[in-house]
Recover the amino acids of this structure.
């Protein structure tokens, strides 16, 4: 069957390339294996090998999860210009964005599984044979929306690429409705993840209506940062055509999103510190330390400095147009938001505990190793998918010569 | 009728009534006596006599002449009482004539196993709470048979304040983690803050 | 594989060897299945454990089988014979609890009685009850000391507040659980099915009273200290990687006994009973004392009150 050939040809393409490509795959695989080995420690000993405690019961894993859902949602920033505003230059690279979404969702789900106390009981979540507490539990919502988003971002590119593989134009009327669904769904995955946190009045640091908007804004800043860098790498390493106008558009979106994101941070700081009450204990701990504990203080100010510097660079047009400066700003934004939305969001929600205790958290080497392994896995998935996508888009793999009408 | 006449009428009326009552019973009117709280759920009380080392007290005291004068006693058992700051002394609770019993404020005899009736004479609110379960301790179950501990089970009647004792160990932290002590919180009370402010 | 029809003289020995080999495999498999090699369980038990349904959907027979497996597991793990029951809730009963905080002296007798009664892991250092020490006149939990360790208690100028699961009537933890491993029983106790929990710890984030605790490692309980009177939803030995919490000593209270914390308290600060019985001690307290609940404004409707007198 053609589909099987399509899959086989794609997979073959994933494992074909110059020596540097193989070294890259090997390095990533080594990190993945390293992470897997350390994860097996966690499986044998239990989560006691992590730095989490009853006081801070979510840590590095969930921090990365929250951040990665944002990256996954940011794929929509390519989908909207490509399909709604019909920008051809963006349409050429939209599949890369969707590939990134797939990789990001994979990583996000792996982080959740790594965080579970009983991953052997995952089947308990399956509706029917298990108990799926939907629509009450926000975690059930998150699992649902992430799974569907994953499938959407697999199915739509699969159809488009399969069509092109067979030398045909994909049927716009067939896949466009799914594209529209995927657009709204992208916003929903990140809103649901935000609601997962903000639904808890037990945690005043999270219990704010602003958390949903903050998540979207920071996702739309960090996502494009990653896409900009990735597209430049693709442009450099392959003959795939990436128009500079795409980069410019993403940089502009990123700038606005970062402005909004920092404005939200400012709003939080004002609201909590003008009349400081118990509600502000967590943010006080985060930014200024509390009761002699201040392990996150350095990190958050560093993140804020990164984001502000990046914003300054981005807001100065001539600087934003300079490749080096733009890339510096992207890296700064990505790292800054990873800190602010990752550990800077999850940990202060637990400090102080609902009973007023301050107990700090630091990730252990197991957590760092497993996280590195999952990131490497995600990058590996993206590399393989991008390899196949680029080959198909460039017409390098195709079903038959006669059908090889479509080339980029 | 004039007022003298009406008073006379009342007087005659009472004279008629009194013999009528006298026909019903030849005893004088009984004052209200404490009979517990009828609304309180029923209960038994854990007996105390077995735990009292010197009981029955009459063993010695039957041979001794009771002396009602208020004084500090010279005895081999608890005689100093830290109870009431001088409002009460031994014979306020212990029956003068029969040391095998305690007595209420109204000098009714109270068995040692019912000591709560004595305590309740002064500590009425606490006594009521105890009847209804808001004070004191119930034995073993919350449902069914209701047995309560006597007041004296927890409170030494001669020194009822509960003494300080060592606490059990502080909570541990998760295996593999350390408890790092931050700065001990010191919150100045409003009046301390005023003083500190003035000192500056 | 050699064809049997081709067996000649030389193959006869081979056939015998093969038969022995296969018999060995068969015996070995039977042994592996029957021996407690699967983390201390037999293969059948491990298999049944893996596919065990959640408590509320198990039939009576399935629950019986689950109770038996729990008892066998405890035997294998701790070398103790326990009795695991499934005492149902009493009808017409909803439990309520009140603590007289002017009587509490901070002894922590309740904390340690609970640890013993409920087979809490000594090594995983699990405690359901936490007593807070605060300055007199201050009720800000952020100013509390959880680790007080003076020579004697009560320390002058301090007051004490024991906190444990409030058994909320509108529990945020129940809403949070993605697999419905925690729910409120008809008698008001919020329970956890430890064999269903996946250990995501979302309920721990949702709880406003820090009442839910996680088994970061396997609970270690010395065999001689094991309480063998257990309940499926309560104090039976729990596995690693699941959440647990105070369950009002479900194995005791459903039989009319006081929870261990109440029995242990020497000052009689703790009052427990049936909220549906207007003549109960707890109802008297609620009607006649100035009671309050922690974080009342969150709307969780705890069934756990505090008062002072």
């Amino acid at each position: 069957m053609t589909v099987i050939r399509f899959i086989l040809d794609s997979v073959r393409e994933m494992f074909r390339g110059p020596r540097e490509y193989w070294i890259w795959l090997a390095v990533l695989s080594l990190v993945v294996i390293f992470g897997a080995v350390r994860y097996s420690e966690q499986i044998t000993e239990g989560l006691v090998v992590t730095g989490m405690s009853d006081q801070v019961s979510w840590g590095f894993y969930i921090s990365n999860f929250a951040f990665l859902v944002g990256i996954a949602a940011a794929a929509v920033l390519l989908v909207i210009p490509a399909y709604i505003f019909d920008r051809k230059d963006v349409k050429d690279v939209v599949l890369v964005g969707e590939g990134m979404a797939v990789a990001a969702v994979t990583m996000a789900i792996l982080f959740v599984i790594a965080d579970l106390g009983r991953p052997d009981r995952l089947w308990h979540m399956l509706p029917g044979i298990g108990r799926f507490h939907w629509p009450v539990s926000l975690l059930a919502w998150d699992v649902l929306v992430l799974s569907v988003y994953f499938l959407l971002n697999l199915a739509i590119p699969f159809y488009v690429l399969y069509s092109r593989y067979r030398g045909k134009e994909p049927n716009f009327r067939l896949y466009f409705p799914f594209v529209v669904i995927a657009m709204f769904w992208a916003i929903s995955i990140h809103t649901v993840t935000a609601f997962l946190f903000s639904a808890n009045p037990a945690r005043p640091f999270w219990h704010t209506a602003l958390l949903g908007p903050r998540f979207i804004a920071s996702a739309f800043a960090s996502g494009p940062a990653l896409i900009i860098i990735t597209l430049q790498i693709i442009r450099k390493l392959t003959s795939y055509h990436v128009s500079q106008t795409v980069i410019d558009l993403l940089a502009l979106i990123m700038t606005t999103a970062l402005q909004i994101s920092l404005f939200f941070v400012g709003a939080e700081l004002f609201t909590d510190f003008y009349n400081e009450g118990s509600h502000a204990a967590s943010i006080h701990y985060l930014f200024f330390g509390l009761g002699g504990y201040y392990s996150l203080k350095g990190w958050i100010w560093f993140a804020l400095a990164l984001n502000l510097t990046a914003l300054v660079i981005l807001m100065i047009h001539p600087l934003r147009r300079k490749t080096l400066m733009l890339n510096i700003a992207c890296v700064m934004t990505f790292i800054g938001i990873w800190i602010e939305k990752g550990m800077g969001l999850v940990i202060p929600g637990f400090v102080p505990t609902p009973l007023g205790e301050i107990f700090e958290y630091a990730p252990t080497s197991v957590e760092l190793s497993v996280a590195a392994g999952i990131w490497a896995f995600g990058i590996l998935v993206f590399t393989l998918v991008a390899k196949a996508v680029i080959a198909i888009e460039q017409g390098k793999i195709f079903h038959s010569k006669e059908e090889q009408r479509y080339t980029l | 009728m004039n007022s003298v006449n009406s008073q006379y009428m009342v007087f005659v009326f009472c004279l008629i009534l009194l013999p009528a009552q006298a026909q019903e019973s030849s005893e004088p009117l009984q004052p209200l006596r404490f009979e517990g709280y009828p609304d309180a759920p029923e209960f038994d009380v854990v007996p105390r006599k077995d735990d009292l080392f010197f009981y029955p007290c009459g063993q010695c005291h039957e041979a001794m002449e009771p002396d009602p004068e208020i004084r500090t006693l010279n005895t081999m058992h608890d005689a100093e009482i830290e109870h009431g700051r001088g409002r009460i002394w031994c014979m306020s609770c212990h029956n003068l004539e029969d040391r095998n019993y305690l007595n209420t404020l109204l000098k009714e005899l109270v068995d040692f196993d019912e000591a709560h009736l004595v305590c309740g004479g002064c500590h009425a609110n606490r006594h009521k709470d105890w009847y209804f379960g808001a004070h004191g301790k119930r034995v073993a179950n919350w449902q069914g048979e209701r047995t309560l501990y006597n007041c004296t089970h927890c409170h030494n009647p001669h020194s009822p304040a509960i003494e300080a004792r060592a606490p059990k160990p502080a909570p541990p932290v998760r295996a593999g983690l350390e408890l790092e002590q931050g700065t001990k919180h010191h919150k100045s009370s409003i009046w301390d803050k005023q003083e500190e402010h003035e000192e500056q | 594989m050699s064809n049997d029809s081709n067996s000649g003289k030389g193959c006869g020995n081979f056939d015998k060897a093969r038969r022995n080999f296969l018999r060995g495999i068969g015996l070995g498999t039977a042994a592996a299945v029957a021996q407690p090699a699967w983390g201390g369980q037999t293969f059948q038990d491990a298999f049944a454990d893996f596919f065990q349904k959640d408590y509320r959907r198990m039939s009576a027979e399935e629950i019986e089988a689950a109770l038996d497996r729990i008892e066998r597991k405890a035997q294998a793990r701790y070398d103790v014979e326990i009795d695991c029951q499934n005492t149902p809730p009493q009808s017409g009963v909803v439990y309520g609890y009140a603590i007289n905080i002017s009587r509490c002296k901070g002894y922590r007798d309740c904390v340690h009685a609970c640890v013993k009664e409920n087979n809490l892991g000594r090594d995983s250092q699990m405690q359901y009850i936490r007593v807070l020490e605060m300055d007199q006149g201050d009720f800000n939990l952020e100013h509390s000391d959880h680790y007080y360790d003076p020579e004697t208690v009560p320390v002058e100028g301090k007051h004490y507040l024991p906190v444990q699961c409030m058994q909320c009537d509108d529990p945020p933890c129940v809403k949070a659980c993605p697999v419905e491993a925690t729910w409120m029983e008809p008698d008001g106790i919020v329970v956890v099915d430890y064999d269903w929990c996946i250990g995501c710890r979302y309920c721990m984030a949702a709880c406003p009273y820090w009442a839910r605790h996680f088994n970061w490692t396997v609970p270690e309980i010395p065999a001689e200290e094991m309480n063998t009177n257990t309940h499926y939803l309560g104090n039976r030995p729990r596995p690693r990687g699941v959440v647990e919490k105070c369950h009002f000593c479900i194995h005791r209270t459903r039989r009319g006994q006081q929870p261990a914390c109440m029995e242990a308290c020497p000052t009689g600060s703790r009052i427990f009973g049936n909220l549906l019985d207007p003549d109960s001690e707890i109802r008297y307290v609620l009607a006649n004392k100035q009671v309050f609940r922690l974080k009342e404004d969150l709307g969780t409707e705890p069934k756990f009150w505090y008062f002072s007198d």
The CA atoms of residues 13 and 273 of chain C lie 77 Å apart.
